[in-house]
Design brief:
- By secondary structure, this protein is an alpha+beta fold.
- It has one domain (about 5-100).
- The chain is built from 2 helices and 5 strands; from the N terminus they run E-E-H-E-E-H-E.
- It has helices spanning about 30-40, 70-85, and strands at about 10, 20, 50-55, 55, 95-100.
- The strands form 2 sheets. The protein has a 3-stranded antiparallel beta sheet with strand order 1-2-5, with no helix packed on it. A two-stranded antiparallel sheet has the order 3-4.
Amino acid sequence: MRESDIPLTAVSTPSGMLWDWLVMPHGMTNSPATFNRCVTHLLRSVRDFAPSYFDDVFIHSRAVNGKSKVKMHKEHLRKLFCAHAQTQALREPEEVYRRG
C-alpha cells in the first residue's frame, strides 16, 4: 500500500480508538484483484512450476535430467522460498496495522 493511502484506511472503533491499515485489507474495493496482480508479479520468476491464485501457490514438479520428482520438488520449494524472501512480502502481525 502506498504511504499516502494509509490515512484513507482509518477505522474508528466503538471505544474511540483509530486504526490505520499498513497493508491492503481485502474488504476494500478492487483489493482482491490488485492483490492477485501483485502476487503474480512478485512470483513471476517461479511461475513455470508454481503458478499462483490469490494467496495460493500450486507447485508441480516432475523428474527432469535424471533428478527424481522429490528432488525437483525440493528444488522448486527452495526457489519459491527464495523468491518470497527477495520480495519481503511476508509481514509480522504488528506490521499490518497501527494505532492512531
